[in-house]
Write a structure and sequence with these properties.
single chain, two-stranded antiparallel ribbon, flat, disordered C terminus
Length: about 110
Amino acid sequence: DKDDWRERTALIDATGSRRLSYGDLFEQVSCGAGALKAAGVAHGQMVAVAMKRSLESVVAIFSIMAAGACPCPLEPRLTRQATPSTSAISWTNPSSSSEKFPFPFL
């Protein structure tokens, strides 16, 4: 079946407890890229990503690239003052309680 790819596992977290299917990955990346474009992020613009290593951080980086921008991963402990001034937007950690995250950036 041509839709089988949507159900296959694309990403697994380090503990093996959380998985993201290709279908979910595609939907979340598309949503994130659309939100970035709607927020005015331009092609080639840098986007700071200050998140712990997680499934969400992978989705954030893929979303930024899908929007045509350049992901700039930062150590999440950095303060806003340490964020590069050339960065158009910052993407930070979502609430850890949400299974699907609402793209908390700006």
